[in-house]
Amino acid sequence: MKPKNGMFIACVTLSMVVFDAASQCSSRKPVIFNFGDSNSDTGGLAAAMGYEFEYPDGRAFFRPPTGRLCDGRLVVDFLCENVKLNYLSPYLESVEPDFSNGANFAIAGSATLPKYVAFSLNIQILQFRRFHNHSLRLQSQGNKNFVGEDGFKNGLYVIDIGQNDLTAAFNNVPYDQVLQKIPSFIYEIKDAMWGIYLLGGKNLWVHNTGPLGCLPEKLGSLKPDASQVDQYGCIASMNEAAKAFNSQLQDLCQQLRDQMKNTTIVYVDVYSIKYSLIANSSTYGMKSPLMACCGHGGAPYNFDPKIKCRDAGFDVCEEGAGPYVSWDGVHYTEAANTIVASAILSTKYSTPNLPFNFFCNN
Ligand SMILES: *[C@@H]1O[C@H](CO)[C@@H](O)[C@H](O)[C@H]1NC(C)=O
Ligand SMILES: *[C@@H]1O[C@H](CO)[C@@H](O)[C@H](O)[C@H]1NC(C)=O
Ligand SMILES: *[C@@H]1O[C@H](CO)[C@@H](O)[C@H](O)[C@H]1NC(C)=O
């Protein structure tokens, strides 16, 4: 009885948070540009590579799926819903794109380094520069599918990257060498933020990286022993590296607030939100937080590097029966993203604690 009631209350409270926080832009049309990896890719990789992701992706919301590595909506989708904005079209989408509300440059697999490969953060910024240039021209010619000067100036620039850099850094390298690489990732993010600023962007919203060591993909591939995991079963060294990255990212945001005149830079502690969700998953009525819904091999992680979700022979959890936190071992489920997005929108994890719609209401 008790946990059931607790669960119910938790769900009601959270959905109320989503709706209470739903906040239109009163004075101007919201415009959002997003940069990052699969955590916020709304179909960019699918468009670039000609992939059609199929069931079970999208099964909780988008049918057919839309190129999101998820059963439904991503955090960025919930942020768009919050300001009554259409979901962002990927920059590379050539089939009926709508860029009147911004564009999404995030591509699954992206990292900050190496710098000159598709689709690093640097390439995404170069794409943005090209988009900016042509969008201004087209919009001034009356094309309503593009963004004009005001949109670029008052728009929100969201950055969510780093997970793939840390993943790559951990490839057969000892922990102290992983730590040594982190400043080079932060340097690339700094470069990207300057790139946006120099083109006139003044509202930045930066997500830090989540607890890497809690991903079923890492756990199922590395099979850590008891000495390597923390009290919730996550790989401690990976989470420590994520926290080191985040601390430098937070410092960067502070440094740039001083250097970039007239900008607002909001740093969001997504790590704490996700870690708290994993630690308290049963409070949210969620299933084993270290186990992928879509994968192979069963408990404890349901992640088999040889038969991943989308590979021939994968298994997928029953739909609607107490959601999992992890969709495919790397990406969160829509149910988890709902909770993460409400926590982001609560402003409790933001520095400074600005509401998400700040950029369109001044
Ligand atoms: C903008 O695009 C035009 C072509 O439309 C090109 O000649 C120009 O170099 C571009 N400017 C920048 C800053 O990229
Ligand atoms: C900052 O904003 C103020 C007031 O809008 C403006 O006067 C000033 O020129 C801006 N400074 C820069 C560097 O853009
Ligand atoms: C779990 O939830 C409790 C109550 O909200 C909170 O105090 C605690 O910090 C959470 N655990 C973690 C690891 O975040």
Automatic annotation (TrEMBL):
Keywords attached to this Swiss-Prot or TrEMBL record, sorted alphabetically, are: Coiled coil, Glycoprotein, Hydrolase, Signal
PANTHER family annotated for this entry?
GDSL ESTERASE_LIPASE LIP-4-LIKE ISOFORM X1, ZINC FINGER FYVE DOMAIN CONTAINING PROTEIN
Signal sequence annotation: 1-22
Enumerate the GO terms in the molecular function aspect. hydrolase activity
Full protein name: GDSL esterase/lipase LIP-4-like
Family under the similarity heading: Belongs to the 'GDSL' lipolytic enzyme family.
Cross-referenced CDD domains: SGNH_plant_lipase_like
Q: Which domain of life is it from?
A: Eukaryota
Question: Among its keywords, does the record have S-adenosyl-L-methionine?
Answer: no
